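Progress report, Aim 2. The chain analyzed during this reporting quarter is listed below.
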Amino acid sequence: MKIQGRMFIWLALFILVMAIVYGVWSKEAAGTTALFMAFGLSIMIGYYLAFTARRVDAGAQDNKNADVADDAGELGFFSPHSWQPLSLGLGGALAFMGIIFGWWLMFFSAPFIMAGLFGWVFEYYRGENANQ
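Predicted structure tokens for the chain:
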């Protein structure tokens, strides 16, 4: 994580320099604002990774002499058969189409989004997958 944190912090500094140069030369507000926002996002990610790297054990990616097999093992739990992302995707697509075609379409997207969120949060508390 230490390496990734440094990479994002250096990327943020590069974007900051480019935002200043772009803003001075172009005098265009939208692109300059977008570059400064990209700087902010990069520095937040870099700070989070650097902050977290100090509190967790060093991973294989932080060791220059590590082999690929050193990073093997369980990475986490990923639900293999969840239908909730499909519901959230449909709701999100309808919501963004509501921005294009009319805000009234948001009323049709809200049930999809709410059902997807509720189902995703409580997926392993009910039904055949209940484990608590």
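The longest helix spans residues 2-26. Residues 91 and 113 are 5 Å apart (CA to CA). These observations will guide the mutagenesis work planned for the next reporting period.
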